[in-house]
Structure formats: C-alpha cells, structure tokens
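Reviewers of the previous submission asked for a worked example of the structure-prediction workflow described in the proposal, so we include one complete record here. The input consisted solely of the amino acid sequence. No template or homolog information was supplied to the procedure at any stage.
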Amino acid sequence: MNIKQMIAKGLLISLMAGAVTGCSADREKNIVFNSAQEEPPQTNLTFFGFKYEALNVMAIEESLHGFMDRYPDISISYDGIKSPGYFDVLEKRLATGNGDDIFMVDHERVLELGRQGKLADLSGLTALENFSDLAMSQIEAGDEAVLYLPTSISAFGFYCNLDLLKEHGQEIPDNLLELEAVCDYFVSQGITPVVANNDISLKTVVIAKAMYPLYRQDDSAAELARFNSGEADLAQALYPGFQLAEKMIERHWISPEITLETAKTKDDLELFAKGEHPFMMTGAWAVPRLRELEPDFEFEVYPYPIMEDGSVLVINIDTRVSVNADSAHLEEAEKFVEYLTQSDVLWDFVDSQSSFSPLKENRLAQDKAIQPIGPYLNNGRCVIGADDNLYFPIWDLSRQCIAGMLQGDDADAAVTRMSRLIAEWADEQIYLEKSNQLSTSCGCRYSVVTESNSKNS
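From that input alone, the workflow returned the following structure tokens.
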C-alpha cells in the first residue's frame, strides 16, 4: 500500500469513527488530515478551513501531498470544520495566539482581520499573475495589500427538476414573467414550487435583483464606493430585492415556516431530492451532495430568472486562503499558498466543489448539471454576492434581514432593519479601531474575543 492509499484509508476510518461514536456536533463535523513522514521535517505547517466533506478533503489531501513532495523539509496538516462554527473557532484561535499558519476566510473576516493586522500581505507572490480580471478586481479591492488568494468561484443556482416540469407541461423559466407564471401554476396545484434555505437562498435573490443594475455600469467599483462614503444608501438600494423576496413569500412560492428551519446544502437538498418541488435555490457546489441522495429525477442548475429581461447569476470569489501574519513560518506558508493556486493543483480542488476557476484559464466545468451557468461568468449578467469593493459585510447583514422577513417583516421593515444593522456595524468598527489604537499605544494586545481556545479545540 503506497502512502496516498494509506492516507485515503486513514481519512475513511476517521469519517466512519465520527459517525459511530456519536460525539458532540462539533466533533462529528471536525475532520483532521495529518500527513506524516518517516523522518521529522524541519518545518510543520497547519492549515485550517471550513471544507470538511470527503470529496473536498481528498482534493486538499492531494495538494498537501504534492506540496510535501516538492518541499520534503516541510510538513503540513489540514483541519476542517463546517461553517458557521468554523469562524468562531478561527477567531478564538487567533485571539489567543494559537492561530494556524494558513486558514480560510470570507469577505467579513477579510474586513475584520485585515483591519486588525492579522493577515499577511501576499502581494509579492508570482501566483497573482495567473488570476483572472474578475478575481483581481476583488483581490486588489480597497487596499494595496493582498490579504488572501481565492481558490474558487462559487455560484448560486436555480435547481430545476426536469421530470416534474415535464410532467406538468411547464418550461424552465428564463425571466421574471416566466418565473411568476410557472410558480403561480404550481401553487394552484397545491405544490410549493421553490425549496429555500434559511441562509443563502433569499439573500442572494435580494442582492441579485437589487445590485444587478449597478453591475451593468462601466465602473461597478466606483458605484460601490458611493455606498462606502455614504453618498448612496445601501439599505435603500436593496429595496427592489426585498420587494421580490416579499412577493415570493406572499404568493407562497416558498414556505417561510419551513425555510426558517431548513439548513443550507443539507436540509434543502433532502427536501428537493424527494421530487415534490420543481425548483430549489442553493449553492451550485451542492450538486455532488444532491446526487449522493439518489434523486429519482433529472435536474439542471441555472442562473436566477428574476429580471424582466432575463436571468442573472450570483457568484462569490470564494474559499479564500490567507496566511497568518503572526505565523512563525511565513515564508513556508506563502510557498504553500503559491503552490495551491497553480493551475493543475487548483483545478482538482475547484472541480471537487462543482465550482469555477478564478484563474485566467477558461476550462469548462466537468459537471454537466452546472454547465448552463458557465456562460454567465463572462456575458455581463453576473453579480458578486460579497464584493470586496464594498466595506460592509452585506452577506451577513442581508441574511439577518431575510430572517426577519421569514417571520413577518415586509420589504419596508427589511430596509429599516438593514439601515440599523449597517449603522451598528459601522459604530462597532469605529470602536474597535479606537481600541486597537489604544492597545498599541499602551503595548497591550486588544481582542474582541475573550473566551480562550487552544488550536486543537
């Protein structure tokens, strides 16, 4: 048995052990991949992320093994925990000085950790030359420093049950008018047409509907800058999106009660796999997970048909990898990030997630179910869900507003809530900035997280 087979076997045993022992929820979702060598290397790196499923971890394993083959004096281990719990652990590790050398971040943590000086500047890496213009528009947004490198472009899709549509003589909708007609038809048949989850479904609809006109402008970054400066009102700009969400709820296209209890890319997949609903809105990366449930129907994934003149795709520059600015092995950690973002290495990871590459290469996704999405990456009908040119964590704030709508808020109330959340977030950033300045002047280290947690918690 070679070393790669031994590693794969060890990972499988670890997964099975977690399921059998019935440990706590956190322990069940925690996967640790360690790759040992016969002789202790000079440097040991740790990589922490929110990718925890077998397909993703196996792709990460391949990159770790390839890296160690190239640099035999460096060893690296990966620790994966499902989000959102992952981010709590990440912040606690960093706050207590137990941060990993390399870790995954999202838009909100880039804003927060970057402001705290916890992310190393990666602007010297030659890998930057390989990223697409779309990816670079995010990587270089707002600061001369490069605080992360993306390893995928994730898309949010409109899953269509082709068999159920055919059974009812309905077509895949391509615009808002067609969406209204097909959803109203299924409601008339006593069928809730759209499976939605309590996180990414409706907030991506809101962002797509409201922000698409902005992305049609010649300089979307300049338009976003108007929100940052206060020249434009972000909460009010989202109003058309909240109106569409309100329509979806009022016309019973979704069930707010069920949606509130439906976890993303888990419960929603189980509901859709039953074959009783024609549509689902969730991440396109969940296609392999849906297939594992063995649905008894054919399906394809499309952009959201929510504009009067057609569909629009919501994407994120995703699975962002940063280096801990306080790492004792900065040079070695940067070598790994450079290696991970090489074309062939990165493609294996991208393809394992049914996602798209952030590099200049133009490879067609191997998964045929998501191929209808591909052209929208370059045809101008695309919106970035969490744009780095925006200095507000719109991803999290919009989710909170949708939670309110699922409990009875209308579009006006959602705008009011969004305005309050933006103001509270801005006030908190001012407070943290002043606290950091005070801590620096007195020689102490400030942290917003007080609960201690070791790296191996």
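The chain has 19 helices and eleven strands. We consider this example representative of the routine output the project will generate in years two and three.
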